[in-house]
Amino acid sequence: MTAAGLERTLTIIKPDAVAKGFVGQIITRLEQAGFKILAGKLIQMTREEAEGFYIVHRHRPFYGSLCAFMTQGPSMPMVLEAENAIQRLRDLMGATDPAAAAPGTLRKEFASSIEANAVHGSDSPEAAAFEIPYFFSDLEICRR
To answer: Residue 34 sits in a domain of what CATH number?
Structure first.
């Protein structure tokens, strides 16, 4: 948590959404939902970087394909800030499977499959504490 009850979370606009030109629309939706963008950059993850980021899933059957997917093209990690940011972003993203996602969610509107699901979001304060510094140094994150 940051000052005044604000929370930070990490989101990544995934390679599928970047390739389809959805970055601007997704950022607009995040800002309209009340998130402040404190940092963001377009990157191309290496296999090693993707494996390190998704290390929590290393024993899951989808780990290899997820890492391959995340390295297929550019993605855009961002640090977001808002009250209850983690849960609010999870709600805005929608279910992992876009077919099961609620209307109006990012995944319903921009994703095409469980893996190519347009956006990532930290799922807990512990995850955010690992994920944010994975991509951003303190100097890269704006202070409010």
So the answer is: 3.30.70.141
